[in-house]
Amino acid sequence: ADVAPSDDALIGHIHHTCEVKKGKLIIPAFSVGRTQELLYALNRAQLNGKLPRVDIFVDSPLSMEATQVVKSHPEGFNKTVAKLLETDSDPFDFPGLRYIRSVDESKQLNYRREPCVIISASGMAEAGRVKHHIANNIDDSRNTVLIVGYCEPQSLGGRLMRGAKEVSS
Predict the structure, then answer these.
(1) Which pLDDT score, from 0 to 100, does residue 2 have?
(2) Has residue 22 got a pLDDT over 60?
(3) CA atoms within a 13 Å half-sphere pointing along the CA-CB vector of 134
(4) What would the mean pLDDT of 154-168 be, rounded to a whole number?
(5) What 3-state DSSP class applies to 55?
(6) CA 127, CA 90: separation in Å to the nearest integer?
């Protein structure tokens, strides 16, 4: 399957939110699988000169650990990723990417005024640090919450996808 349209859509959302609106793009993402797919797509965009110059944060200890596990098993990579490894030593890392470790660092992102991308768990926005990022940033029209995976309809992510005008945690 051709993944370029979804990569282009992701880059389009980063451009629109971070460069045009000067806001934060908050992406709830599952720690295992989806986060690595996003990092791979962003890395490819950066290598192709398409990634806007914006800070990108992965704010999820489990996502960070899962990414390290994936990196330590290159024998499991598909042919596309294996080919990329011929010219790029780390398909899940690129300039501007930073992993957030501590709770204090995570909280500091809420006070940040500069545009950025925050990838954080949980994917359905029901728990974890992403829930706090949404709560602290949803009232600013410059910001965007981008749902990139399945969300159970009654989850916070599911309610946001349906366009709920008011949500509670």
Answers:
(1) 40
(2) yes
(3) 27
(4) 79
(5) strand
(6) 29
- Alpha-carbon torsion, ordered 69, 38, 119, 150, to 10 deg: -100
- What does the pLDDT read at residue 126? 83
Closest CA to 116 of 51, 26, 34: 26
pTM: 0.84
Residue 145: the pLDDT is: 93
Closest to 124 measured CA to CA, from 165, 167, 161: 161
Q: 63-100: b or e for each residue (b if 16 or more CB lie within 10 Å)?
A: beebbeebeeeeeebeeebeebeeebeebbebeebebb
CA distance 169 to 134: 10
- In the sheet with 55-59, reading across from the earlier edge strand, the strands are 97-99, 55-59, 116-120, 24-28, 144-145
Asked if residues 30 and 121 have their Cβ atoms less than 8 Å apart, the reply is yes
Q: What is the dihedral of CA 134, 137, 141, 143, to 10 degrees?
A: -70
pLDDT of residue 169: 58
Question: Are 19 and 11 contacting, i.e. CB atoms less than 8 angstroms apart?
Answer: no
